[in-house]
Structures are given as C-alpha cells and as structure tokens.
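#struct-queue
[09:14] JT: dropping the first one here, sequence first, then the structure tokens:
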Amino acid sequence: MSLHTVDDLLRGCRGTIAPTERTLAEAIIKTAIASATDDPRFPPMTLAETEGLKIKVDALSPLEPVSDTDQLDEKVYGVLIQAGHRRALLLPDIAAVDSVSRQLELVRKKAGLKPDEPAELFCFTVTRYK
C-alpha cells in the first residue's frame, strides 16, 4: 500500500510480504493506517494532506528465488533481499529505477547491505490497484 500526493509524490508506504489478516480488506485497512501514520520517512499524515490523496495497492505474487539476475526486469519484477535479520523489498516499475543494476543497488542500500555482501534474492510480480 502506498499513499501519494496530488503531485504523485510518495507520502507513505507500508505492507507485508505474506498474508497477515483474515481478508484482503482487513489487510488494506491496516496497511493504509500504517502508511499514513507509521512510515519512518515521514511524520504522521494530517487531515489536510488527505485532499487529493492517491492510494495504490499492490498484491504480491509468491516469492521466487533468483539464482541469476539476468532473469530480472525492473519493470516486471519486484525484488526482496535478505541477509540474516536485514531485509528489504522494492516494488517493480518504480520511476527512479531504470535498470536491474539500479534496482539491486537500491534494495541493498535499503536493507543496509554492502554491494558485495552475500544475500538471498527473491523476485515477485504485483497486481496493481490504483
């Protein structure tokens, strides 16, 4: 779930990689609240900021291990990386990501991993609802 301003700037984003609620509707409600109030990159959203707010919901496919990054396409596949307790996820088709190498660089940075640090890599597709 991501929240975007009227100018399409990210305002909050939260989610899970596996089902956590009994229904998709319950998961959407929970992550919408978390996106507005609990994204550490932003202060909690105010009522005034809801004017023109855009809500995007991405439902992830099951994760698949990646053994060869040549399989990836940053426009089609999102990626999850993990090493020990450090883990990060990037959705596919992000405006600032124009190559697989950039996607991998950003997901490693997000997870706090060095460029050459060993890690497990997974990919997924999304069904996007805007």
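[09:21] JT: and here's the second one, same format:
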Amino acid sequence: MKIDISDTKAELGTKAATDGADAIRQAIVKTGAARIVLAAAASQFEMLAELIAADEIDWSKVVAFHLDEYAFLASTHPASLRRFLKERFIQKLPQPLAAFHSINAEGNLMLECSRLGRLLAQNPIDVAFIGIGENAHVAFNDPPADFTTDEAYKVVELDEVCRRQQLGEGWFPTIDAVPTQAISMTAPQILRSKRIVCTVPDQRKAKAVRDTVEGPVTPDIPASILQEHPAVTLYLDRESASLLT
C-alpha cells in the first residue's frame, strides 16, 4: 500500500485523478478498452472533477461500473448515487462512455446483483476509484465485512455509523430517511481490480485511515483488506493523515 499526503483537497484530487487517468490510458493502449469502477461520495468531488479534465482519454473506449447504491431509493432522489455519478461525472465528460452499468436497486435486489456480477465477470477491472468511510467501510461493506464471498455484488445492511455519516454530509434530512440496506460491490471484488485509487480527505476519516493502514487485516476494519492489494494508493490530506505514526 502506497500513501500520498497532500496539503489541500485540490492537490489530493489532482494527484488521484492523474494516477487513475494514467491507468485508464495504459489499459486502452494495451487492450483497446478500459473498465473502471466509480464511487459516488463527497470524498470524490475533487478527484472526479480532475478526471473529467484529464487529457487524451478516449472515453468512448471506457466501460464504467457503479460501486454501490441505496436499496429502494428512486434515481430522482437527491441522495441517489447513480444520479450523483450521472450529474457530476458522466454528463460532464467530453464524449460518451462505451457503457455505464449503474445499479438499479429499486426492484429485485438479488436479481440486480446477479446481473451486475455477470457483466463484471466478462473482463477484469483496470482501475477502481474508491474512498473509505468513517467506520472504515469500503463501498457499503460496513463492519464486519464479508472477506470470503465469491459474489461481485451483494445486499448489505447499513450500520448506524454509516447512516449517520450520510446524514452528516447532508444527503438526507433525518436519520430515519437514510436507507438501512444497499447493493454494494463486495470487498473481494474490489480487490480483483488491477489498480485501486483510494481518495480519503478530511479529519473525520483520520481514525479510519489509521486503522486501515496500521491495524490488522480484519473484517472489523473493512478497508484494512486494501493492505493485501499489490497496487493501491491512498491519497490523503493532512487532516485524514493526522493520526498516522
């Protein structure tokens, strides 16, 4: 695991996007296409803006997958994560993607997990753009996370810390409005990505970052599984890195 610490969120976003853009270009040169995974979260604001502006990416050769989505939340809801990605990333690209496989969690959740799993199995992911939650979750894999599943996506329960994070970030008006379930890419599936760009700003993530980097690999610290990936970089700011020794 590599760690890169920036002085500002803007600098952090630039570095993470530059890393990810390089991985996308390399995949296109090597195989004629690139497959990426995108997280929809406040931590990704700066990185996504810089990725959109990256030079010399043929987005028509890029297939994008969605990391997670709330169960039974309409795509028109302000907190919809697929709405987030469409408005903040996909619609701002200079050319359309080859495909965007968003998560539709408004119907049969198990069938949707199966559908996405079949699409993912066609080819490996070249780069996953992810973050880490306040409870050290990756995607919506709250502790204790399932480190042994063979599934690509699964239905998960959202814990209290995760739900309060969504409330605190302003996505929902009350805690009761925050869904209790989601469809999430699993931790083992995230680790199957060739490259992982993990963007984690803010003081409120400092403990999760410390536990992820310096603690044991355990389902109680879901992001600790990133220690086992050969090509992952954590992009931090001074605040999120403040508890590292």
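[09:30] RK: nice, looked through the second one.
[09:31] RK: The longest helix spans residues 9-31.
[09:31] JT: good to know. The chain has one domain: 2-237.
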